[in-house]
Specification:
alpha+beta, six-stranded antiparallel β-sheet, 5 helices, globular
């Protein structure tokens, strides 16, 4: 079985499990996530490979991390994620990418990401649920972080935090690759 097949089946199983745990119907989850009921049916039947944006919306609506939705070997207390199992969810032909390194559900979804943006590349993000906070630490290059239309430059060695319930974009307007580590904390669904 390919990695993509494994992820598709894990996503199907986990979306259905968390939807049922939350007591959401397909229609209720579709409305909360802003995705079609038909897309949810395809996801729960492992018949589609949805975009990262769709997976994020579903995770946010369920109040669980992307790690939880894609996880197929969740352990009890200590979970080691080998480098080769970090999930690459976005990439460009130029060499930019992000990788979901680890995540947990206490008290709400908490995710840790590895990002690389090549010069001229950017990645926009829709607003996350109110109360979501993101932390970034730039390892190399310079991040151009645009939050609610305002640009902020974050050079190597610097960190930034922001409320992510507004549109935001990670960009590299410099001449060298930008590398950063990011943590995302989403409040639990009530």
């Amino acid at each position: 079985m390919s990695d993509l097949d494994l992820l598709t089946q894990s996503l199907a199983r986990n979306v259905k499990r968390w939807r049922n745990d939350r007591g959401f119907t397909l229609d209720a989850l579709a409305a909360r996530a802003g995705v079609s009921r038909g897309m949810l049916i395809q996801i729960e039947q492992a018949r589609t490979n949805p975009s990262i944006g769709t997976v994020v919306k579903i995770g946010d609506a369920l109040g669980v991390s992307i790690t939880t939705l894609l996880d197929y070997e969740q352990g009890r207390q200590v979970r080691i994620v080998p480098a080769e199992q970090a999930v690459r969810l976005w990439s460009t032909d130029a060499g930019s990418y992000n990788r979901l390194l680890a995540g947990t559900e206490a008290p709400g979804p908490l995710e840790m990401w590895d990002w690389r943006l090549m010069p001229g590349d950017s990645s926009p993000s829709d607003p996350h649920p109110t109360g979501t906070v993101e932390l970034v630490h730039v390892l190399a290059g310079e991040l151009t972080l645009t939050v609610d239309g305002e640009k902020h430059r974050v050079p190597a060695g610097s960190s930034a935090s922001f409320e992510a319930d507004t549109p935001h974009t990670y960009g590299n307007e410099g001449g060298e690759p930008m590398e950063m580590v990011m943590a995302v904390s989403v409040p639990p669904v009530r």
